[in-house]
Write a structure and sequence with these properties.
This protein is α/β, with parallel strands linked by helices and 223 residues long. Helix content is 14%, strand content 26%. It contains 4 helices and 14 strands. The strands form 2 sheets. Strands 1, 2, 3, 4, 5, 8, 10, 11, 12, 13 and 14 form an 11-stranded mixed β-sheet that branches. The chain has a 3-stranded mixed β-sheet with strand order 7-6-9, with no helix packed on it. α2 runs parallel beside α3. The chain is globular and about 50 Å long. The mean pLDDT is 94.
């Protein structure tokens, strides 16, 4: 399979679905890219578990203030009206249902919405972080991921094989090949790359893709 979206393009597509004024938590690493691609005229309010609300982009190299970092220990800037709070208050926001969206990475996603993203099994290095709280505290949980693993195996499965982060929590998956909703315990295909046939997409997906209406072309800019 030759053509697929880059991580930046996946992040761009996910950013298009964040509404103006949404309170958003982005997972550490790849999901942080989503913040770079807010559509013109829309502004999200970003939350980080270590206690900042409404932080901005990374500062220029050499101008970092290392007292201002996100949960991934990356330097951030502050937007007007930004606030600081205790770690416990941050998790009270998460657990209290005050976040509109959480966007996370994944090792595996099951067709019933189960998510595995903290452990690769007995030989892996576990990294729970705040994901277990986020997936059940945020009003909407989305995943951004490559469609397959580095060795070409499906990441979208009938059932997860790795330790779960959350049960029945994911509602939409943005991959390098498609946009897929989880509805009624099924993967429902919403968008796919124009050059990719449904059969080819199904061949790299570990559960049946349901087509319940028109499937739009997944069109993203060159980034």
């Amino acid at each position: 399979m030759s053509a697929k979206l880059t991580n930046n393009q996946i992040a761009w597509r996910a950013a298009q679905d964040i509404h103006d004024g949404a309170y958003v938590n982005l997972g550490i690493g790849f999901p942080e890219k989503v913040a770079q691609y807010q559509p013109p005229g829309r502004e999200a309010i970003f939350h980080t578990e270590n206690g900042i609300l409404n932080f901005g982009e990374a500062p220029p190299a050499g101008q970092e203030d290392w007292d201002l970092i996100n949960a991934g220990k990356r330097a951030v800037t502050l937007k007007p009206g930004a606030s600081f709070f205790h770690h416990a208050d941050s998790f009270a926001m998460v657990r209290g249902g005050h976040l509109d969206v959480a966007i996370l990475g994944a090792y595996e996603v099951a067709e019933n919405g189960d998510l595995a993203n903290w452990s690769t099994g007995p030989k892996g290095i576990p990294a729970v972080g705040g994901a277990m709280d986020l997936v059940h505290g945020a009003k909407r949980v989305a995943v951004i991921t490559d469609h397959v693993t580095k060795d070409g195996k499906p990441k979208l499965l009938k059932r997860c094989t790795l330790p779960l982060t959350g049960v029945g929590c994911v509602t939409r998956v943005y991959t390098s090949l498609a946009v897929i909703d989880i509805e009624g315990g099924r993967f429902v295909l919403k968008e796919k790359l124009p050059a990719l046939s449904l059969d080819d997409l199904q061949a790299v997906t570990g559960a049946e893709l349901l087509v319940a209406g028109p499937v739009a072309d997944l069109i993203v800019p060159e980034l």
